[in-house]
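Appendix B. Raw example, untouched.
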Amino acid sequence: MVAKRRVMMFVLSSPSGAGKTTLTKKLAINNTNFAISISHTTREPRPNEINGKDYYFVSKKKFDSLINSNNFFEHAKIFDNYYGTLKEPVLKILSLGKDVLFDIDWQGTQQLKKIKNSSLQDWIQFPLVTFFIIPPNIQVLKNRLFNRHKGQEKLIEQRMNKFNEEMSHWKEYDYVLVNDDLDDCYNHILAIIDDIKRGETVSQNLKEIKKKINELFQ
């Protein structure tokens, strides 16, 4: 269990298929002080996804209405669909003394960081820590995408073609972790959060991270 000290916000981002959603859910399930910010999206649900649990699935018209009403903290177009984080649910979670987990991409992270540096009083008091999750190698990533999107070769190719662009934003994150083994990566994230909560400084081997990043670029 993560030591409770102050309410914080944690972002998990990754290239498509590297495991951010699985890790986010694992953190929330095993630690009651975490709550996931459930995004709105215009994409169709995948098999076994539940509206209101995995995402809020809405029409493009509804999504545009939420944008025009300034209801989102962040929103972005990812591939052919839109995703966004509503303000009200996040602020409610924080007001209840729970840490918020964001499962979002680099575009959303940039927007959250920008808002964090703004004058929004209900938001600015909560520290924001960001994690970027990367695969151990390209083949593992391809295998994960093939297993997730069987029979959708065009979609898999589209996601692989975006890999370098997504990876290029790794420097914008506080911590970069390799998701080779799910449990190991989960425990590593939890250990970093635990140290941060205790007010301890957490450092990473930047040389090793750069080496791994360079190996992954196609």
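End of appendix B.
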